[in-house]
Each structure stands twice: as C-alpha cells, then as structure tokens.
Amino acid sequence: MGVTKEQVESSLTSKLSPSHLEVIDTSGGCGASFAIEIVSEQFVGKRLLERHRMVNAALEVEMKEIHALSIKKALTPDQWKQQQQSTPSA
Amino acid sequence: MECFSISGSCVSNLHFHFTENGHSQPPLFNSQFTAFSSLILSSNFPNYPYPFILFPLQTLLHLFLAYSKALERTQSSSFGYHFGLQEPLETELVTVPEATDQLAENLPSDSGVYAVFDSNSELQFVGISRNIAASVLAHRKSVPELCSSVKVGVVAEPDRTALTQAWKSWMEEHIKATGKVPSGNETGNTTWIRQAPKKKPDLRLTPGRHVQLTVPLEELIDRLVKENKVVAFIKGSRSAPLCGFSQRVVGILENQGVDYESVDVLDEEYNCGLRETLKKYSNWPTFPQIFVNGELVGGCDILTSMHENGELDGLFKK
Question: Which of B301, B302, B308, B309 should we substitute to test contact with A (largest number of A Cβ atoms within 10 Å)?
Fold first, then answer.
C-alpha cells in the first residue's frame, strides 16, 4: 500500500517541469499523505484553482492511493523569486 | 487513518471514521486528573462523551498542586523526550478587538489553547479549542466585560492528547504563580461553557437511499450549488466534521460569519453516490469542496490561502 515520495516527484517533474519542487511525506513514510510545494512556468496566467487542478491531474494515478494531499504552494517563478526575497531565511 | 492535518484535502476513495487516539496516559497522571480534563474539554466539545464530573474546589487545588510537584520532579528526567510533548506556538497578549472581522485577523482559527484576561489583566479562563478565534468570539459575545485580552497557543498536531497536555501546562504555570485556579475554570462556574448554538442542519440531496431518483444526481448537485450562495461539501457534518481539512473549512466559514450550507459526503443514507458524482461534476478529486455563487472555489488549501490573503471578504460580498 502507498505511494513513494519519489513517484510523486517523478510524476510532477515529468508533467509540470517545475523549477522548484518539494514533496514531504506527512504520513511518516507510509505514503498515504503528502504536502507539496511547486514552482512552474506552466502556472503563469493561471489562477489558483486551475493550478491546483493541474497538480491534481499530474498525480491522477497516484491519487487513487493517496489518502490526503496538501498543496502548500503553487507559484510561478516570478512569485517564487518575490517570496524568496521577502523571506531571506527560507 | 485519522486525517488531521491543518490544511489540505482528503482523498475520498478511502472510507474512514475519526477514532480516539490510542495514546496511553503517562504514569505520572492519575485517573482523577484526567477526568478533570474532561470537565474542561466539555466546554469546547459539547458532545464530548465523557461524563461531567464535579470535584470540590479543595480537591481540585490539591490535585493541581500535587501535579505541579510531580512535574517539577520529572522535568529533570527528560520529561519531554519520553512523552513527546508538543510545545504550543505561543503569542503575547493580544487585545480582543471590537469588530468581528478584526478578531479573525488578529487571532488564529487553528486548534490550541488560549487564556482570557479581563481589563485588569487578571486571568479569567484557560480553554481548549478546535478554532481559537471562534471560541474567543463566542466568549466575547456572551461575557464581553471579561474578555479584554487573550494569550494564544497553537498546537501544531492537535490530537486530543496534545491539546490536553498543552492546557495542563498552562494551568500548571498559572497555579505555580498564583496558587489558585483561574475563576473561570473553577468547578461549578459555567460562564465559559459554550451553550451549544443551534447549528444549521446539513443539506441532504435525496429523501433516502430507498427512494428511486427521478432526477439525475448531477442535476441535483447543479441545482444545489446554484440556488445557495455558499455550499461546502465536507466529510462529516458541520457540527462534527470527520477530518481535519473539513474541520478547518468549517472553522474558516464560521469565522467569516458567512451564511453557508453544508453537505456531508459520507452520509450514505441521504447522499448516496454523491462523492463520485461530485468529483466528475467539479473536476476536483478531493474533499472538502467549496462552491460560491455556483462556482467551485477549491478545497481546504485554496480557502486557507484566500483566508490568509484577505481575499475571502471580497469573494463573499459578490
């Protein structure tokens, strides 16, 4: 049972070509729930709902086994750069 | 599995129910003290299953002082390491603002402990809440003269044990400093116990499982989200959400003071087949799902994001 963190990373990388991607297994390693932070050019001009839909679609296969998915950030590279500048410690 | 993260969505293909965390009490705590915690918990959980137990004040004080001494003893022996205590993220004193919308901005709608002070900065009550802002708002409405400022401690992984531990820690700190229990936490004082407000009932899509539908479920959903301004499809009911994400959505909506409808997607009697049909209708694979003016806004993550960015007021005013 469960999905590996590497599988999630692989699907998101191949479908959304992120410039930044962080996937955290929040179920303590059993692959049931993940938190995602993703930056991609493909989000340009898209509102938040559509961005989340794109992430959901990229994980369509894994979603059948994932119990809970949390998309913490879905940003364009410009937004990501802005955020990095405003929080220098991150 | 419990679904109890602070934000995110629950994939609905797994059917689950909330279960009590099978955490055993550390040997330090006797059963009487745990029972007292249930007394306080009941002020924030109206349907808490444990009986309402009364103690004479003298017994309470004795128990707390005994607890303080026991805690001092164990603090030198890696207490935190053994029992995995979570330190609440504490704030300094926050003035309780007059306006409701300011309160939502100044206080978190997360789970944790909070302490209420009157205008003389005297501690009146220490409580546990699944939605701190909503609890403080309720207190302010019922006893405004006692709610001048609050101190807040957010608990990151708010299972019942962690919340109880945080509450005990705060009570112990106060008792050590003053030698007495806050007046609001004294036995028999019902000032701070929330009188369970009449919650709006959840909507049901069908009259029951046995009734043959003459209209497709998809059309019922479409009608529902278009005839009501705000609809939240959640796991569980609004008075008892069954996952952390649905809990958070209910907390945000209650916090906004918005009039909304809720639909329990786990109700197999009245909403049978809703989960699969709604996923296709909305092109969104998880729950909760929030609709405003007939359009999907998103799940818990998006609602949380809009809440934090201050975009919700604009959304609900359209």
Answer: B301
The alpha-carbon gap from A68 to the nearest alpha carbon of chain B, in Å, equals 4
Residue type, B72: E
Are B262 and B234 in contact by the 8 Å Cβ rule? The answer is: yes
B299 touching A (Cβ < 8 Å): yes
Q: Give CA–CA dist B211/B272, Å, rounded.
A: 11
- Per-residue pLDDT for chain B (318 aa), expressed as one digit of tens each? 323 333 334 443 332 222 233 323 333 333 333 333 333 443 343 433 334 344 344 445 544 554 444 444 333 333 333 334 455 666 767 878 767 666 777 788 888 989 999 888 889 999 989 789 888 888 877 888 889 898 899 988 788 789 988 998 999 888 989 898 898 998 888 788 755 665 689 998 899 977 878 889 888 999 899 999 899 999 999 889 998 989 879 999 988 888 899 999 999 889 999 988 998 899 898 999 999 999 899 999 999 999 888 988 898 876
Give the tokens for residue B188: 């028999």
B86-89's contacts with Cβ under 8 Å and 24+ in sequence apart are B86/B155, B86/B156, B86/B157, B86/B162, B86/B165, B86/B166, B88/B112, B88/B113, B88/B153, B88/B154, B88/B155, B88/B166, B88/B169, B89/B153, B89/B154, B89/B155, B89/B156
Q: Residue type at A56?
A: N
Identity (one letter) of the amino acid at B288?
A: P
Decide: A76 and A43 in contact? Cβ < 8 Å.
Answer: yes
Q: Do A72 and B13 touch (CB under 8 A)?
A: no
- The HSE-up count of residue B316 (CA atoms within 13 Å, CB side) is 19
Q: Could you say which of B9, B245, B297 has the minimum Cβ distance to residue A49? A: B297
Q: Is the peptide bond before B27 cis (omega within 30 degrees of 0)?
A: no
> Coil, strand, or helix at residue B227?
helix
Bridge partners for A24 per DSSP:
A35
Q: Is residue A21 within 8 angstroms of chain B, CB to CB?
A: no
Alpha carbon dihedral B276, B281, B286, B291, in 10-degree steps, equals: -130
**What gap in Å lies between CA B114 and CA B52, rounded to an integer?**
22
